[in-house]
User: What shape does this take?
Amino acid sequence: MTAISEKLLLYQLRTKHDPDAFAKLYDTYIERIYRFVYFKVSNSEEAEDITSEVFLKTWNYIINNSGKEIKSFSGLLYRIARNCIIDLYRRKAAQGEIKIEPEIELGDGGKWYADLTKQIDNQKIIGAIKKLKQEYQEVVTLKYVDELSIEEISEITGKGNVAVRVTLHRAVKKLRDLVEI
Amino acid sequence: MSLRPRRKVVGSKLPAMRSPRRFAPRDDKASSKKIMDIKSQLKNLKHAGVKPRSEWLQNNREVLLSQIRNTVSHEAKPAFKIESFWPALSIFLPQTFVYNFVRPVAVLLIVVMVGTSGWIATVDASYESLPGDWLYGVKRVGEKTQSAVVSMTGNKTADTRLHAEFAKRRAVEVKKIVASTDPSKKAKVNEAMADLKSEIKVVNANLDKAKLASSDVSAEVIKEVKTSADEVKAVLESVKDNLQTASSTDLAAANVITEVKEMKDLAKDTAVKAVGMIVDKHLAGDNTVTKEEVKKELDKTMASAASEITENKQNMDSVKIIIDSAVTEAKGFVADSKTTSSTVATSTAQDFSDKITNIASTTKSAAVQTDAAVTNGDKTMAEGKVLIGQNDLAGALSKVQELNTASKESEQIKDATLQTAQAILPITNAMKDAPLPITSPDVKIEVKIDTTTASSVSGTLPIQIIVTSTKATTTTSIKK
Assistant: This one.
């Protein structure tokens, strides 16, 4: 989806509250948001719940805040996703449930086991990502998995462009060290 | 003992130099390769590594859409509101830019557009308005603004053109008002006439100024002014004809005909003055109008004046024929009244007959004058043509001026005679066609003059007389 068509859909959404426009945006971003959430939670069920919650909250935000500026739909989605994840951590912390060592689980079932070598590599890298601190996890996944630009990441995280670049650089180095171990 | 370089001695005492850490070579290639591997592995995660279950995707989509549709169905779809336009626009442009720049500029533009388009539309609609119309004021204000702007720029050419155009407009307005059935048209005609007079005066003044200082008003512009003056003259000519034939209206009773005639003469003088100036400018070396064009203008002006003189003469001939026939009729009526009517009636008829005979003699002498004017006019024109042929433009111009004066004089004679005849002719015709005893106490004679189809007095006088007689309740008599 081009930036212009995304903006047009957002325009329809904001001015006409068009569910079909929202459905198109949902189709575009569902996998990305799921992935973004997945790296930060312990399992796919949680990732699914949070992703679903993210989209519903995004809809409500757009409908109820017609006067507020929304620079980009993706930025809004990621910001809401971050907040949902933070909420989840807080709830878990309150219940004493946080798992430090995440279990390796991948979302697309049996197919994934077909390529064993690849699976091992993926397991390794996912394990390494999950060992990174939140700040690094975020920028690495946004930059290399979701292929967002530095500007977009800066908007989502609320940091300056330079800060994002520095964080990303450090995160990659850390990830390299973790993978090497 | 051999000398050893001091440096080496000193150096040998120092510990071996270590390269700073930052210059220590590392296996950069291997490191960057590892990083590249990690990056590509991360990208692989997108394609194969982490994906949501397809059944969850589908179910979640349906559930979510049904949820959001429920929220929408309860509220009416928002209609377009200008308040929601700016947030919507800030989807495409930065919000600060929209609110600090786009919105103020858009508002300003709309204000300017509404203001100017309204003004243009109103002035445009007012173009056809006449004095007394509520849009006429707008039209005049528009014209005054134009005039003020032009005079501020000090461009005499544009100013002269503009006032010539305004003079044409006023003349057309006079014509329209005269042709209208407006009960208060007399006042409106006077208003338009006064404006016309002032416009022609401004044009004249501009021409004088152009003559004095060798200003930027070229011969070409003066030629345009001349054309405008001719147009004004033609319009006023037709107005005058209408007024003369519609002699029963209020306008004829008023001094309007005289004023129109004055104005027409003024326009005519302006045209002649313009021709004079074209000649002067050309002789002074202004080549914006060629010699051939100057000659053409001179010829055209002479021909126009000569044709007016001829037309006046033809009108006079027609009036003379009618008056002569009226004299015969009046004499016959006197003879009849002597045998059939009372002494009073006979005396009244005799008085009337004497009066009409006097008019006939005046008409005759007027016809002789106009006839002589034609002869002189033809002669002057022939001389003028010869002078033009000899390239004596100044000489030809003096002939043009002579012809102009002659045409004005012959018109004056024609108008005076026509006015007298128009006063007496209806009565004569009424007496001829309805030979009722005019002193009878119970009959009144009603004379209606229908001139609605008349447009010109050349050839025959367009006077149609309908005579009806009805029982009268009071005795009436014809006023002399």
Notes: Chain A touches chain B through 58 residues (CB under 8 Å). The CA atoms of residues 90 and 99 of chain A lie 13 Å apart. Chain A has two domains: 1-101, 104-181.
